Amino acid sequence: MPYVAKWTKVNWTMCRWRLPPPSLGSPTSTVKSKRAANEVKRRAPIYKYWNLDEKAKKFRCGFGKCRQTYAETNSSSMLTAHTKSCHLTEWEKADGRTTNSTSSKSAAVAKAFQPVDPKLSPKEQQAIDDRFKRLITELAQALNRLCEVPSRFTLKACLCADFEKYRQKVKAELANVPGRISLTLDPWTSVAQEGYLGLTAHWVTSEFELRELLLGFVSLPAEHTGEVLKEEVMSILRDYGIAHKTFAWTMDGAANMKAFFNDMKPDFN
What we know:
This is BED-type domain-containing protein. One of its GO terms (molecular function) is zinc ion binding. InterPro entries: RNaseH-like_sf, ZnF_BED_domain_contain. It is found in: Nucleus. This protein is α+β, with helices and mostly antiparallel strands. It has three domains: about 40-100, 2-Layer Sandwich (Double Stranded RNA Binding Domain), CATH 3.30.160; about 100-175, no CATH class; about 180-269. Helix content is about 50%, strand content about 15%. It is built from nine helices and seven strands. The chain has helices spanning about 1-15, 25-40, 75-85, 90-95, 105-110, 120-145, 150-175, 225-240, 255-269; strands at about 50-55, 60, 70, 180-190, 195-205, 210-220, 245-250. The strands form two sheets. A four-stranded mixed β-sheet has the order 6-5-4-7, covered by helices on one side. The chain has a three-stranded antiparallel β-sheet with strand order 1-2-3, covered by helices on one side. Strand 1 and strand 2 (about 60) form a beta hairpin. The protein is elongated and about 65 Å long. It starts with a helix and ends with a helix.
């Protein structure tokens, strides 16, 4: 019996590397996977303004009489670059935007998804972005070789859209809170000397259940003065429409927090 066990173990060790790769499924599932990958890839808003010629496998510009085409395999960043350079005015008009003004909603969403580190040069930031994209692509294709990783512009557009939906849901929930809302806040500095502020809301529902939610996690300048804290906190409270519903505040006893509280008193009185 020991000999048989040893023989089985040795043969498994020798043969396990010769096993065929795991099947990706039936032809039907493969087609569905390709279709799903293309749908994810084309979620960027820019695709609304480009027409796909499935026979020629090309995207055709949908603005005016423009004849610009790009291969179906091109990313959304290529289509965006052409649209910005040749049809910026028409694009902004069709998208409900203006060149010199930005709505508070889009400004808040863009601020929450700022990808640029101010301490890095554009060249350094681009090098990090390229390396990160290669790593993500290699990981995704190792898990599923049919996966097509979208560009960072597409991912940002999808994340911003999902974030805005969640933000509106939170605003609606806070607007229906029957009583007052208490807040907890704490600023701190990381080991990299970067400042952050966390603001959490606490309230009791109509079913007498205690709820809490992180309202904001924002970066701060080097000096956490009372004026800076007031500006950031009031911006978050006004954004969620609860500045008039606050009740109790919980914070530490640092000097800047005392200055912050004194600066906040006139706004609530």
